[in-house]
Design brief:
The complex is a heterotrimer of chains A (95), B (485) and C (397).
Chain A lengths: L4 H11 L5 H18 L23 E2 L9 H5 L5 E2 L2 E5 L4
Antiparallel strand pairs in A: 2-3
Chain B lengths: L6 H9 L5 H19 L2 E4 L1 H17 L9 E5 L26 H8 L3 E6 L33 H8 L5 E6 L5 H7 L2 E4 L19 E6 L2 H11 L18 H6 L6 E5 H4 L5 H16 L3 E5 L7 H16 L18 H12 L2 H14 L5 H21 L5 E5 L14 H5 L6 H6 L3 E9 L2 E8 L5 H14 L12
Parallel strand pairs in B: 2-3, 7-8, 7-9
Antiparallel strand pairs in B: 1-3, 4-6, 5-6, 5-10, 9-11, 10-11
Helix pairs in contact in B: 2-3, 5-6, 7-17, 11-13, 11-14
Chain C lengths: L2 E12 L36 E2 H13 L7 E2 L2 E4 L9 E4 L9 E6 L5 E13 L3 E3 L6 E5 L6 E7 L6 H17 L12 E11 L9 E6 L2 H20 L8 E5 L4 E4 L12 E2 L6 E2 L2 H9 L5 H10 L5 H8 L2 H14 L2 H18 L8 H5 L9 H7 L11
Parallel strand pairs in C: 12-13
Antiparallel strand pairs in C: 1-10, 1-11, 3-16, 4-5, 4-15, 6-7, 7-10, 8-9, 11-12, 13-14
Classes of the chains: A alpha+beta (95), B alpha/beta (485), C alpha+beta (397).
């Protein structure tokens, strides 16, 4: 599958990345080569083969419904970029 | 003191009163200070903490409550969360991140009385095969500082090779413990998926990541594995009946004669005859020890690299979405709105390879491409896993190369696809979730070569016993780089 | 032109577990900001989800109660999008293999008729945190206490035909989840929220018109008004020659109108894929049988029993069974005085009035309500009942 530069732009929006002109070109070149490599998967026969969820085919364990975490808010927020009154601050979001 | 001593030798030394853990720790801290500028293998050195842990270790010896690892220094790959200590993952994004908790693997080793010297350098967010993508600069191979040590656990490998630590931890998603072990002439184990807890190990590709030990001998690997591995309720992918904790005991005894498979498809990829001869030597040694070598087929080998890159990139692209400048990590200056906050924080915080993988992964998961890429890759993955299961129906282990060549010069490989081909011998075992051990088996053009032993799921004790058997008959693992005092 | 409206509801039910769906943090409402958001909830690097058994049990309870199929092996998926109240940058939800499959609900309308509403599916997912937009000059404050709360999202087929019926359906589900003790039903605290998918078409036709989604409705009254407004708006647009666009809208109760939700203008590709940190969830026959065996008497069963066995009128039976707390209290009163009609009259009359006067909810101590009535009313029942402490029905946990 061919990837165009405008596809790179769409991917950047989805991934919240901003690339400059030079980076965008490189990303397009890189992804073109990478996608060419992964396109080779199409030639592997996989009819009636189930996707593999876990290499040992294990299933989910469930835990008992108990409160086990004592939250140390100060320890967590000490490393936060912007906090006030216990809240994480971000630029105003308009709904 | 011998900086290249094994963990076993050092623990014996402390127990025999030849030196204390504090003396030993000081010795390694001084070496790091004096020599690491050449190799750049450490990002953070935790000298104060290490000495405090060493003092506590000495007290345990006096009290008679020591374990075989007590008082022995270790270096943790900077992907493991260490409480109160910077955990950067080799990235600007987490350069200011002081982890508020310990990874389970770290806590288990701490409980055994091990002493943490510091955090080692790595490819950014574990994405790489050369340790050239770190925000903190490339790591240099002690065997030749103009060359890479391998990646992504290159800092741990280089620190071991240079005698700056006797033990280290790494993580392996597609070869990131094994390939640097091979390039740096040391030993490294990627355990069975699910046997070492992933809690506190910053995620790259969830269904592939495994933490594991790196050391100078297989016997050391076994000791470290026994302490690190085990069920963890905090990790849903953790195996309930995983590693049996008896690897150290298993490596002490000679294993029974084993049938060892040589994968045809791997041998076909060894195009350099001189390089191939090094593996022939390893095979000859195993035969002389009474094991039988036969050829086996792993038919879907050629599909492994593309399968790996689709799955790893897809999972990584979403695992890295949490890095948004809101709760921790890098945040851009004066964001004007939410989009600006996200875009600039992430673009400034991530390096080029990480961005490449995020974009690739986002592409593979996009509407319209999901079936062709992600779902397809997971189907092929089942076929690759089944290849191994079938092979182990007739052999006990596999012998394989670890990397397609020796350590290459820093800056030589710039094409991402060419770099991905470094993983051709390591990604299949990652996709299958089987354990794989890399150990030194010779030299090529003066540089270390590592061979791989691969076993069935949860066969670590048997696999390590075979590796230890090999190491009793060879001394490749005792070689040290020239020009490193 | 006569128009017909077609409505489907997605109800988000906050499950009444003690801890969150993927972490062991507390779920108690009203704690100071971020004091109930542990490392997993704030998505610290290296943290991993572990599944709460009670959330699964409550989802299966709902499925069994509506006669739905329960998936023997369901999967969690990542729904990827960026928003500050979503710490991981993805929500763990269920995409194409939900825990509960198709079921049905018999909706009782005001006029006594029954309308079958088909349930498409119900799935488990985690809730996001909250954004506080006031008080922070130019900034929004994020509280992640709610991040990771367990939600059961119940999706109905577009079988509703007017706003009144939609409100009745929401009300009936509200009653059901409280009976099942899987949700406290506290709308003010956001325990249940509803998104309405609304479209219109010429009466008598079968093709579906373009639909809009109205998000985050948390009251029966607002739901009805919002849908009525939206139906009128869509008809207006079409009759003026325009076209209805697929949009996400919010209801503004002060202006009684719906408007487009800004953040949803950029439609995201959610890139759903199976959550690799969680494994497939197996629910076996034994588990389902145990849940079935522990099901309480359902509201419709209770109502039927009040009519057929206790001889109460349809109206009285409906009134008494609408709220499980009231039903429990009525049954306790009945146990004391042994006369159904008397007990019903007293509960619906004096007792209800006393609660209203004191502005108490039915689950406040029923004893407090009963005591002032002692000796005051000549009613035989209250004399007998008021002298003994009556166990109050309290929380659903």
């Amino acid at each position: 599958m061919t990837i165009h530069e405008r596809d790179i732009d769409k991917l950047c929006v989805l991934a919240r990345l901003a690339l400059d002109e030079g980076e965008r070109k490189h990303a397009h070149d890189d992804l073109t080569r990478i996608i060419h490599m992964i396109d080779s998967l199409a030639s592997v026969a996989t009819e009636s083969v189930e996707p593999l969820a876990h290499p040992l085919d294990a299933t989910q364990r469930m835990r008992a419904d108990e409160v086990t975490e004592r939250v140390e808010r100060d320890a967590f927020q000490r490393i936060a970029p912007s906090v006030r009154d216990g809240l994480y601050l971000v630029p105003r979001v308009v709904e | 003191m011998n900086p290249f001593a094994t963990v076993t030798e050092l623990a014996d030394g402390i127990r025999a009163g030849q030196f204390s853990s504090v003396e030993l720790t000081r010795y390694y801290l001084e070496r790091i200070e004096r020599l690491d500028a050449r190799f750049n293998s450490f990002i953070t050195v935790t000298a104060e903490r290490a000495l405090a842990q060493a003092a506590a270790a000495d007290a345990r010896y006096r009290a008679g409550t020591s374990t075989p690892l007590t008082g022995v220094p270790i270096a943790h790959k900077d992907i493991f969360c260490t409480n109160g200590v910077r955990t950067s993952c080799g990235s600007k994004m987490l350069d200011n991140f002081i982890a508020p908790y310990d990874a389970t693997a770290v806590a288990r080793l701490d409980a055994a009385g091990i002493v943490t010297l510091g955090k080692t350098n790595m490819d950014e967010f574990a994405m790489g095969s050369s340790c050239e993508t770190s925000f903190y600069g490339p790591v240099r191979n002690p065997w030749d500082p103009a060359r890479v040590p391998g990646g992504s656990s290159g800092g741990s490998a280089a620190a071991l090779a240079a005698g700056l630590t006797p033990a280290a931890t790494g993580t392996d998603t597609g070869g990131s413990i094994r390939q640097p072990a091979a390039f740096s002439g040391i030993c490294g184990l990627k355990p069975t998926y699910g046997s070492v807890s992933r809690y506190g190990m910053v995620a790259f590709a969830s269904s592939l990541d495994q933490g594991g030990p790196m050391a100078r001998s297989v016997a050391d690997i076994a000791l470290l594995l026994d302490a690190m591995a085990g069920f963890d309720a905090k990790d849903s992918t953790s195996a309930i009946n995983g590693h049996d904790g008896k690897a150290a005991a298993a490596t002490a005894a000679r294993p029974k004669p084993m049938k060892i498979g040589l994968p045809t498809e791997y041998l076909a990829m060894l195009t350099d005859p001189a390089f191939a001869r090094v593996f022939d030597e390893a095979r000859r040694v195993l035969e002389s020890l009474g094991h039988t070598l036969v050829e086996v087929s792993l038919p879907h080998t050629a599909a492994a690299v593309p399968t790996y890159y689709v799955i790893a990139s897809a999972e990584a692209s979403t695992n890295l979405s949490r890095y948004d400048g809101v709760r921790y990590g890098h945040r851009c200056e004066a964001p004007v709105d939410l989009t600006d906050l996200y875009e600039r924080s992430r673009s400034e915080g991530f390096g080029r390879e990480v961005k490449r993988r995020i974009l690739t992964g986002t592409y593979a998961l996009s509407v319209g491409y999901f079936d062709a890429y992600y779902l397809k890759a997971q189907r092929v993955r089942r076929l690759i896993r089944d290849d191994f299961v079938a092979a182990f129906g007739s052999v006990d282990a596999l012998l394989a190369p670890t990397a397609p060549g020796v350590a290459f010069p820093i800056g030589q490989i710039s094409d991402p696809v060419e770099m991905y081909q470094q993983d051709v011998f390591t990604v299949p075992a990652s996709l299958a979730g089987v354990p794989a051990l890399a150990l030194p088996c010779g030299f090529h053009e003066g540089l270390p070569v590592g061979t791989q032993l691969i076993g069935p799921h949860l066969s670590e004790s048997q696999l390590l016993a075979l590796g230890a058997d090999y190491q009793r008959a060879t001394d490749w693992h005792r070689r040290t780089p020239p020009r490193v005092e | 032109m006569k128009w017909e409206s077609v409505i489907g509801l997605e109800i988000h039910v906050q499950l009444a577990t003690r801890s969150k769906i993927f972490s062991g943090a507390s779920t108690v409402f009203g704690a100071p900001p971020n004091t109930q958001a542990c490392g997993i909830d704030i998505a610290l690097p290296g943290t991993l989800p572990v599944l709460n058994e009670a959330a699964v049990r409550m989802a299966v309870t709902f499925g069994v109660a509506i006669g739905a199929s329960i998936s023997p092996r369901c999967v969690f998926d990542r729904k990827n999008y960026f928003y500050p109240d979503l710490p991981k940058g993805y929500q763990i939800s269920q995409f194409d293999r939900p825990i509960v499959g198709a079921g049905r609900v018999e909706l009782r309308l005001d006029d006594g008729s029954i309308r079958t509403i088909r349930i498409t599916r119900a799935h488990l997912e985690e809730d996001a945190g909250k954004s506080l937009h006031e008080d922070f000059a130019g900034m929004t404050g994020i509280d992640l206490n709610r991040a990771g709360m367990p939600l059961l999202e119940i999706v109905s087929e577009p079988d509703l035909r007017n706003a009144k019926d939609a409100a009745a359906y929401f009300r009936q589900m509200h009653t059901l989840v409280r009976y099942l003790r899987i949700c406290d039903g506290n709308l003010n605290e956001g325990s249940m929220r509803c998104d309405a998918n609304v479209s219109v078409r010429p009466a008598g036709t079968t093709d579906l018109g373009e639909r809009t989604e109205i998000k985050n409705l948390n009251s029966f009254r607002f739901l009805e008004r919002a849908i009525d407004h939206e139906i009128a708006r869509q008809i207006d647009v079409i009759e003026s020659g325009g076209r209805v666009h697929r949009e996400t809208r919010l209801y503004d109760p002060d202006r009684d109108e719906t408007r487009i939700m800004r953040s949803k203008e950029l439609s995201d590709d959610y890139r759903y894929f199976p959550e690799p940190d969680l494994l497939p969830v197996v629910v076996d026959e034994a588990f389902i049988a145990k849940v079935r065996g522990s099901l309480p008497e359902l509201p419709q069963q209770k109502r039927s029993r009040y009519v057929s066995e206790l001889g109460l009128s349809d109206y009285d039976a409906s009134w008494l069974t609408d709220d499980p707390t009231v039903a429990r209290f009525f049954e306790a009163v009945l146990a004391e005085c042994g006369e159904a009609k008397l007990a019903a009259n007293w509960v619906m009359g004096d007792w209800s009035a006393a609660l209203n006067r004191r502005e108490l909810p039915p689950d406040a101590s029923a004893v407090t309500a009963a005591q002032p009535l002692r000796g005051r009313s000549p009613n035989r029942c209250s004399n007998r009942c008021g002298t003994r402490p009556i166990r109050s029905a309290t929380s659903t946990r």
